């Protein structure tokens, strides 16, 4: 059952997240689209034209997400013009998350967030503009127009459904915040599968790569399991990437560490190691199931599943270097490009027994 958020010990800035975190295990080859820099220039120009960043500071943080570098790693072989709309959505998504999900007047008020999010979602769904659209809704509708032009109807509607699931997950997170509730591990993983934004991010792979996955493959349990495992692995990595910043700002609320501190009282080092083990257990299953599933898929299905793997690796590389997570001050600072130390083996590779994810280990997949 959920419990009061005041129960666990707060995350203390006396702990150094950099010292606590073990190296990441990720035996997936690194790759990045050669058009990343050109797409970044085009995307930053679009941000200025779209006008959804209300202040220079908001614009600086949006640009500092390095979203072109991020998604260029998900789709390393995509055509530049197909990659661009996906990159625009990632920039938009980070800015929307910062302004209306993690902070701002809606961030702890589900009664205002839900109708606002529904209006934004509706701007994505309908093909025509509305005078009632705010800056975020107008920018999202522009992205939707680009998706309709470059993708198929099936691809676009898969993205729309994934986008709706993301906003529903965020609404759950905001409801917890408003009620002072910290979820248990089972509920947290269920919520994070949606609230992390992984569903729309991976749903764009089909559009960016210009290949529609047949429904029989996309809806197959094995491909669905692979998609969910990629989402959760990236989400847990993002919890890791943002921990140091949250410790510094004393902002930590719902993340894998505060959830696990319910079990371990004030022992953040124990919670950090358990989170790393949990993440590795999911990734190991992803790697094994991917190997057995790929031979059964069409070229489009293989491209999609390979994109899931690229996304896991790309998200990890991006998150370990991006100013969004590494900057400690009120404005983003450029991060370095020092080599990343990767773990040679996982901390744990046992199946998970939590009902929300245990089906991923079904031998019938």
UniProtKB/TrEMBL annotation:
Main enzyme class: lyase
InterPro entries: Isoprenoid_synthase_dom_sf (IPR008949), Terpene_cyclase-like_2 (IPR034686)
EC numbers: 4.2.3.-
Pfam families the record matches: Terpene_syn_C_2 (PF19086)
Domain of life: Bacteria
MF term (GO), any: metal ion binding
Alphabetic keyword roster: Lyase, Magnesium, Metal-binding
Gene3D superfamilies xref list: Farnesyl Diphosphate Synthase
Cofactor or coenzyme needed: Mg(2+)
Family designation: Belongs to the terpene synthase family.
Protein name: Terpene synthase
Protein species of origin: Planobispora longispora
């Amino acid at each position: 059952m959920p419990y009061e958020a005041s129960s666990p010990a707060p995350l203390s800035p006396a702990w150094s997240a950099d010292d606590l975190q073990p190296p990441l295990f990720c035996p997936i080859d690194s790759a990045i689209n050669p058009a990343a820099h050109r797409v970044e220039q085009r995307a930053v120009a679009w941000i200025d034209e779209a006008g959804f960043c209300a202040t220079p500071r908001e614009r600086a943080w949006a640009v500092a997400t390095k979203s072109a570098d991020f998604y260029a790693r998900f789709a390393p072989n995509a055509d530049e013009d197909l990659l661009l709309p996906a990159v625009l959505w990632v920039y938009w998504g980070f800015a929307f998350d910062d302004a209306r999900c993690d902070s701002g007047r809606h961030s702890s008020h589900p009664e205002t967030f839900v109708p606002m999010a529904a209006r934004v979602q509706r701007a994505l769904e309908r093909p025509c503009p509305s005078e009632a659209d705010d800056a975020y809704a107008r920018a999202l509708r522009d992205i939707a127009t680009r998706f309709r032009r470059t993708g198929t109807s099936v691809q676009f509607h898969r993205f729309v459904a994934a986008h709706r699931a993301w906003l529903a997950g965020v609404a759950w997170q905001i409801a917890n915040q408003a009620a002072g509730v910290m979820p248990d591990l089972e509920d947290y993983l269920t919520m994070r599968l949606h609230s992390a934004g992984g569903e729309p991010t991976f749903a764009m792979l089909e559009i960016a790569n210009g290949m529609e996955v047949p429904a029989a493959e996309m809806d197959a349990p094995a491909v669905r399991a692979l998609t969910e495992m990629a989402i959760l692995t990236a989400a847990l990595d993002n919890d890791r990437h943002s921990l140091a910043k949250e410790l510094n700002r004393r902002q930590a609320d719902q993340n894998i560490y505060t959830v696990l501190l319910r079990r371990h009282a004030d022992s953040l080092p124990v919670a950090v190691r358990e989170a790393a083990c949990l993440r590795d257990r999911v990734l190991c299953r992803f790697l094994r199931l991917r190997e057995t599933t790929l031979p059964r898929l069409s070229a489009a299905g293989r491209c999609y599943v390979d994109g899931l793997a690229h996304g896991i690796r790309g998200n990890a590389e991006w998150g370990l270097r991006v100013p969004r997570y590494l900057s400690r001050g009120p404005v983003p600072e450029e991060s370095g490009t020092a080599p990343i130390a990767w773990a040679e083996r996982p901390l744990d590779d046992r199946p998970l027994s939590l009902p929300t994810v245990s089906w991923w280990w079904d031998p019938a997949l």
